[in-house]
Write a structure and sequence with these properties.
The structure is a homodimer of 472-residue chains. The first copy, chain A, is α/β, with parallel strands linked by helices. Chain A has 11 helices and 29 strands. Chains A, B: Pfam families: ManC_GMP_beta-helix (PF22640), MannoseP_isomer (PF01050), NTP_transferase (PF00483).
Chain lengths: 472, 472
């Protein structure tokens, strides 16, 4: 069985922690792990030594790869397909199925898992996966249906049909769209409906056959894209032309809703799509007043509140059911029952072309990350973290000079034609228009403080000459 | 008439903007001016060319003096008495009266004004001051009574007696303590009560006579302190011994409540003690939804909220009547109707020995200020602003090195035995245990970024050898 992790999507309802440049799967939860890490570990536990395939974008590739490697992924254990643009789940799954067909075999089954869902009971999950695997082997398109616990209007539902003999699954009678509240209550009361979790299990050949029948345009575009791709490498960078020809459509809509061989495996494994700050808050223990706190906070006469702090102190006075989420450059204060409306903030910021819609104060790069400490008229100050063995591009700036002070590790610096080492408590100066390159030749992270001087500090004032990450 | 400005007190209910190191009088209001500036301008307008006397502490002296100078105070126009510790208003006013007696004349009248009150209608205020001045000339201890607009329980009240013929004042029938709500409602309904504004007008000799009668201990300690003081200088630094012998007591309790010659001048000049964030918020224009915003904010489905932002973005979703105040190192979220409980946050922080109870991210010094940009294990990064003509102490650090990059202005640096100029985009390095001094010899502010390296960055790792501000 090949686990397929789908990692995309912005998670705007979890702003300001989830932003497009570093979205929901990478958010650290209560236990310090991210959803992406948890998903990879789950995949690992069902896949044994088989490779795990992740479909994501180039923007998230380096960060995701490093995350997996930290969890012990060997070079053959994780493979990537990189989409040049988002086209919803059907094209991603089609290309993954082609990959599995050609690299593992058409009869191999695939376990499709979004990277941003939480599953609390791993043992129950694995049991459900075994049941789904069996159904997949019988030519079924298996879904995982969650027993609803409340009349949720944010999910699609699955109506169950007759049991499939000798398995733990049921035929799918119908997939139904997100209901209104009254309909959701009726579904809940009837006992015949599951939440559609967006996870699937099928063999590559059965999925491709269903696509050929129900979504031939998607399959055709995926096939052309697949043929245009160098198939041996990882990551596989899917070319924008012809990938962009794929219609943007979900696997549910393109295939599952029309297929006669859809099955549903009931799952009670503590699934959550972590769709809002309310869901995040429920991962924390509450105190006697129903408050849940992460970080440094002082609460006075407040009840039912959730505080997620960062560096700064958060004080709450006389509040009830309020969510406060603080980050370096933005703070969100929302009523708990309107936590699902946080996406509207991101929409407004996007309209205002405010970068806080997309970027954090800490920006991840293939070589590490930088954090903006000061962004003023007269200077910009950053902390740069360069990972061991990583190298920034050979570059110059036309409008800014840079003053570097190393505070951890030993950096190798190229400056003009010179090259030298810079240790902690040593500094150097990069004049305007001077070719330079920063490298970490050691085995520990290098941290340095960069003070930029000049009159313009935009990220676009960078001319790259060589770049090991293909950005030159 | 000598205006006497009393500038002390923490204003903890306006945390996190007001903190002990930079309290309420220095907060910038909606119009960009601080209460201290407004008070000085008010004093100026009633004093003509007479000196204005300010009683404050050494901690606030340099900042206050600079503030007045920016408003045009000449060297003879502002005088300071610096208290070594707070002893409430009676000792401060006693010492000011002794100053007035000896430097202006015993018959001169004094107008006592707290530095942290707001008065919106200056013309009406000046008219009330003229009336109070007249009463003072007749040997009265004049107070300013505000017509109550609501049953406030946070103020003391004054019950008016018979009118004093030929003046706009009334005899004071009684001073009454802060009432409970029902009592406050009864006061409001009766029409016989004023709010006690804490402003006064009397001649030095009448005040000193009343003190001799009603608070002889306060007067005795003040007299001894006054005699121990070099009287010609400004600022006058009152010696802790014997000043500490003064009982800590308010002028109301020590004198006014017991005096037979207390008068009250009704004032309707838009007075407010700006006692909470609710009061601050009311200085801002509200939009159609009753929201008031200063700084960068996105509000979704929120009503009656007040946002005071700083550098960062504040987003509010689904809130009603919530106050959000953001600063560099702390954010306060409070229900508007519990804004008066914000002081409890400061009390909790004080118990936790959290510096956010006292200090801001920006700390004012006699020579300018510094702002902490990063405070980490491996380094501390600050922006230093040195005012023209100012000089930091000649100093060294035992545990940290410093890397300075000038980003505005030209600094003069002494490093060991050398001395040199450092211009914008130039940097230098101060090794551990090396004598150094930073100076601004120019006419514009010097800004520099300081990167401290080492393992300990406490403010106490500083050995001062020479200091023009007397801190060596």
């Amino acid at each position: 069985m090949v686990p397929l992790i789908l990692s995309g999507g912005a998670g705007t309802r979890l702003w300001p922690v989830s932003r497009r440049a570093h979205p929901k799967p990478f958010m650290q939860l209560a236990d310090g792990q991210s959803l992406a890490e948890k998903t990879w570990l789950r995949a690992r536990s069902v896949a044994g030594d088989a490779p795990i395939l992740t479909v994501t974008s180039r923007d998230y590739y380096f960060y995701t790869r490093d995350l997996y490697e930290k969890l012990g992924a060997g070079p053959d254990q994780s493979r990537f397909l990189l989409e040049p643009m988002g086209r919803n789940t059907a094209p991603a799954i089609a290309l993954a199925a082609l990959w599995v067909r050609d690299h593992v075999g058409p009869g191999a089954s695939m376990l499709v898992m979004p990277a941003d869902h939480l599953i609390r009971d791993t043992a129950a999950f694995e049991e459900a996966v075994r049941a789904a695997h069996e159904l997949a082997g019988q030519g079924q398109l298996a879904t995982f249906g969650m027993h609803p616990t409340h009349p949720e209007t944010g999910f699609g539902y699955i109506r169950q049909g007759p049991a499939i003999e000798g398995t733990q699954g049921y035929q799918v009678d119908a997939f139904v769209e997100k209901p209104d509240l009254d309909t959701a209550k009726a579904y809940l009361a009837s006992g015949d409906y599951f939440w559609n979790s967006g996870m699937f299990c099928f063999t590559a050949e059965v999925l491709l056959a269903a696509m050929a029948e129900h979504a031939p345009e998607v399959l055709a575009a995926a096939e052309v894209t697949w043929q245009a791709t160098a198939t041996e490498a990882t990551p596989v960078e899917l070319p924008a032309e012809p990938f962009s020809r794929c219609p943007s459509i979900s696997i549910d809509y393109a295939v599952m809703e029309n297929a006669g061989n859809a099955a549903v495996v009931p799952g009670d494994f503590g699934w959550s799509d972590i769709g809002s700050w309310k869901a995040i808050s429920e991962l924390y223990q509450s105190d006697d007043a129903g408050n849940r706190v992460r970080g440094k906070a002082v609460l006075v006469d407040s009840r039912g509140c959730f505080v997620q702090g960062d560096q700064r102190l958060v004080a709450a006075v006389g509040l009830e059911d309020v969510v406060i989420v603080d980050t370096g450059d933005a703070v969100l204060v929302a009523h708990r029952d309107q936590a699902q409306d946080v996406g509207q903030v991101v929409r407004q910021l996007t309209e205002l072309e405010d970068e806080a819609a997309i970027y954090h104060q800490t920006v991840h790069r293939p070589w590490g990350s930088y954090t903006i400490l000061e962004d003023a008229e007269d200077c910009k100050v950053k902390r740069l973290v360069v990972k061991p063995g990583q190298v920034l591009s050979l570059q110059l700036h036309h409008q800014r000079a840079e003053h570097w002070t190393v505070v951890q590790g030993t950096a190798k610096v190229r400056l003009g034609d010179e090259e030298f080492l810079l240790e902690a408590n040593q500094s150097t100066y990069i004049p305007v228009e001077t070719l330079h390159r920063l490298e970490n030749p050691g085995t520990e992270d290098v941290h340095l403080i960069e003070v930029q001087t000049g009159a313009y500090f935009g990220e676009d004032d960078i001319e790259r000459f060589e770049d090991i990450y293909g950005r030159a």
